[in-house]
Amino acid sequence: MNSTYSSNHKTRFLVLLLMPLAISLAHAQTEPEDLTAVLKDELISPAVSEFQIRQYVVDRIAPPPHVPSNPQEWTSEAARLRHHLLDVAFHGWPKEWVEAGPKFEEVGVIETGSGYRIRKLRYEIVPGFDSVALLYEPEHLSGKIPAILNVNGHDYPNGKAAEYKQKRCINYAKHGIMALNLEWFACGELNRPGNQHGFGAHLDLVGANELGLFILEMRKGLDYLYNHPNVDRNRIGMTGLSGGGWQTITLSSLDERVKASNAVAGFSSLRARVEAKRFGDLGDVEQSATDTLVGSDFSHLVALMPPRPILLTYNAEDDCCFRAGLAKPLIYDAVQPFFKLYGKDDAIDWHENRDPATHNYQLDNRIAAYKFFSKHFGLPLIDNEDHVAPEIRSYDELLVGLPEDNLTILGLAQRLGGEITRPPVPSDPAAQAAWSIAERAKLKEVVRYKPVEIEHLWTVATTKSKDVQTMSYVFQMNNGMSASGVWLRSILQSSDTAPVTIVLDDNGREAAAEAVSDRVNRGEQVLAVDLMFTGASWKDIQACQFAQLVDGLGDRPLGIQAAQLSRITRWAKERAGVSSVRLEPGGMRSQVVSLVAAALDPSLFSALVVRNGMHSLSYVLKLPVQFDQAPELFCLDLYKNFDLDRLEALAAPAKVSVTKYLEIPKK
């Protein structure tokens, strides 16, 4: 009896002793909602993030070109620069497509009875992808006459049928000038799903620089005019508004067959675009195409024009972009000396529109164009467009027609992506080791990987709530960009030397609350990180436009993010004194950044566990993922050279697993 009583008494005593600890541990279990406030805390304000990325871009912009001592020196440099830019633009494009001659088909003629006719043309950009054009031709052709290539801006519904564009083409034809009116991607007859300019980024992903397609589309029009039996090859001009102005300076500067050029409100120097508070316009992907801004800017393109004449037309109160006062210093004032070098001071002219002064190619700007081309083409002065307005035709009257199965920008990227083949990963250990070394070097080049250091670690906040203690940090890197993170651990169940998991999420730290809570409850230390372009620090910022500028300047957002992650991981290892870190990315963006970081330095990570990941980068093409949804994924040559399985192989010995896959919805 005494023995039994003693045993029961000890048991009750032990239960009473351990009960507070059990209650304490029960309360120590953290719920995701307990962490929401600290995870969503804005550690870097969006204003700071935007300033940093603007500063990053500005610091890398090429200065205006240096004026040499003689024209021969600049002629040689101009030839080198043209060759370089065309090499960049046609990176990854099949040589036979780039060198193919024009293939135009006439599908109808409108006899106007007003001194000119309109020929409806369909032409091939690349095999399977056609566009359309209208040729405004003087009624009585004889000998050689001038011709002007007319290109579109972003007039999505009207395209080539835009009223202001019709008027100038009609007027040119009435005055003995042939006018070719091209359609443009996403506009008019090419206004189809898959032709939005952002899908140019998908071409980059599969290894073909997006700019190449845009040059091919407009250059075919120039080919047509150059080969026309009635066109004077020494009097071919080009003009367009907005995106048409960008097309004008791009093709005119790179192709000397254009003998006179009038770009209307279509570009400015990159510095003016980035520094402007409003009306600078960062532009579409093709306007800052990958690697095209390395060592050159739009001031260089204007400097490629002399001795050929150019009229730069801008609007004083432009309500879209490129206001005259912002654009003029670096694309007119800075370039004038190059024309003087050739003794052609009057070959560069500036026209500033004040009526209506907004984004336009209305009468005042058209009259300036008529005077410019008639002067430089040796024609009687054209200073009006009398009797033109009644001859404007409807969209349907000018319809040319395209095949139902005509490719789109996206469709072309999907086709090119479907043709990609890669050699298998070697199975022999020695061969695989050599393969890994070569592939890592290639990956570093593709993502333009540049290691970064933490220039300043800002400890910005700390909390202790229930059983969780946190420290919040800003990682200011030595390249001028920053990331932020919250370090969390259980007070009772963890320690400063416990295992570490780094958690990322495409939607920011707050969206990862469940994953963070789970690892904290396992006794781990957790660092929830927002890299560049993710999380609350980038709220309401057009990150995709800045990402494209970074691409244009020769860096890659994906490489910058991977470098941030690698450096923060090394810091976390040092802080906790652990040999490696578990990494848990959530979403396709974080998945790819994590895989790149692990592939380049496998020793950093023990495991990668992906939430909501892709099977393959082909998901980006097939869904399709929009450029603004995941700008860092559209890295030139990434899918051409690597898919996720190859990155996983490079990450070994770290084990990669996916807890849930993203699937393409069935139609």
Would you summarize the structure shown here?
Helix 2 (32-39) packs across helix 17 (513-521), helix 19 packs across helix 20 (588-600) and helix 20 (588-600) packs across helix 23.
Count of DSSP H/I helices: 23
Low-pLDDT sequence parts: 13-27
In spatial order, strands of the major sheet run 1-2-3-5-4-6-7-8-9
Q: Globular, elongated, flat, extended or rod-shaped: what is the shape?
A: elongated
Strand content: 15-25%
What's the domain count?
2
Query: How many whole angstroms does the radius of gyration measure?
Result: 30 Å
Question: Which tags fit this structure?
Answer:
667 residues, alpha/beta, 39% helix, Rossmann fold, elongated, 8-stranded mixed sheet, 9-stranded mixed sheet
Written description of the protein model:
This protein has 667 residues and is an alpha/beta fold. It folds into 2 domains: 66-417, Alpha/Beta hydrolase fold, catalytic domain (Rossmann fold, 3-Layer(aba) Sandwich), CATH 3.40.50; 429-658, Alpha/Beta hydrolase fold, catalytic domain (Rossmann fold), CATH 3.40.50. The protein is 39% helix and 19% strand. The chain is built from 23 helices and 17 strands. It has helices at 2-28, 32-39, 46-58, 71-89, 95-98, 163-174, 200-205, 210-227, 243-254, 270-275, 298-303, 324-333, 336-341, 363-376, 409-418, 429-446, 513-521, 543-552, 557-576, 588-600, 618-622, 638-641, 644-651, and strands at residues 104-111, 116-126, 129-138, 145-151, 178-182, 231-241, 260-264, 310-315, 348-353, 454-465, 468-477, 482-490, 500-505, 525-530, 581-586, 605-610, 655-658. The strands form 2 sheets. The chain has a 9-stranded mixed sheet with strand order 1-2-3-5-4-6-7-8-9, sandwiched between helices. An 8-stranded mixed sheet has the order 10-11-12-14-13-15-16-17, sandwiched between helices. Helix 2 crosses helix 17 and helix 20 packs across helix 23 (644-651). The longest helix is centred in the N-terminal third of the chain and has 27 residues, at 2-28. The chain is elongated and about 90 Å long. The N and C termini lie far apart (77 Å). Residues 13-27 have low confidence and may be disordered.
